[in-house]
Fold:
Amino acid sequence: MIKVKEVIQELERIAPPAYQESYDNTGLIVGDKEAEVKGVLTCLDSTEAVIEEAIATGCNLVVAHHPIVFKGLKKITGRNYVERVIIKAIQNNIAIYAIHTNLDNVYNKGVNERIGQQLGLVDTQILAPKAILKGFIAYTFDERAAKLYDELKAAGVIALHQQGHRLEGQFEVGLQTRVVGLLRAAEAHSSITEIENKATNVGAGLYGDLPEAMEEEAFLAYLKERMKVDCIKHTALRGHKIKKVALCGGAGGFLLRQAIRRKADIFITADYKYHEFFDADQNIIIADIGHFESEQFTIDLLADIISDKFSNFAVRCTAVRTNPVHYWC
Structure:
């Protein structure tokens, strides 16, 4: 018997919650983590239609990329689709788990690696490595220093050193609340700094090379076919072949500077606004392929991650196209 919490543990082994962005709400949104898993349905968005599909197919765990709840709910009365999804899931004993920006921010089996594979890129690397460690220096009373040292070590602090009343160490970002709490309880005077991430396995976006350079129009046609998109919004072509490609699933406009710095010929992402296209400034081509379109292969990615670990239940990819955007071409 496999429980919901065991599936969660595997997902979080791949994409630790500590790697999510501060605004995000990954994790178990609805449901009992001790419940036995009878079937899993993977999706981008846990809409009402997806919950109905889960009911019809006997899946009691929905694993979504986007959290159905981003902000706190003060009332759950069914007045909007978010509340209706929550009510329907609870009524039918369906758990909903979201794995969002933490899956965006890992290289191995992450959202952007999957896009890179879909485009056949080689020599891929994280576009903007994320600082996953923080360091601290703290001063406290001598009689409290030894006890604080033991507490910090037990909490998972690494590279920990004590010299008299001075302590210093490093910790993963997910431990910050715990570490700060221990320092405050010991009445320690402390400072915390980010440590540059020398590794390339955690961070935002991805870049890599095509095996062979392509003419710009030929690449756009290739991009459209490989990413299964109906249309592409892009900046002016530059008259250069496409060789180095930068990308970010979802809304990745914040990575444009990094894409230019990496000397990418094109930056593929979604959710670009009109004035933001001017920022290409003839240094790069920006290609907006749509939010759903850029992340749609995450549905299969999630199914693969779960299926590779568990064979006790069926894992299905949703047949519901949850994209709220429609095109008239």
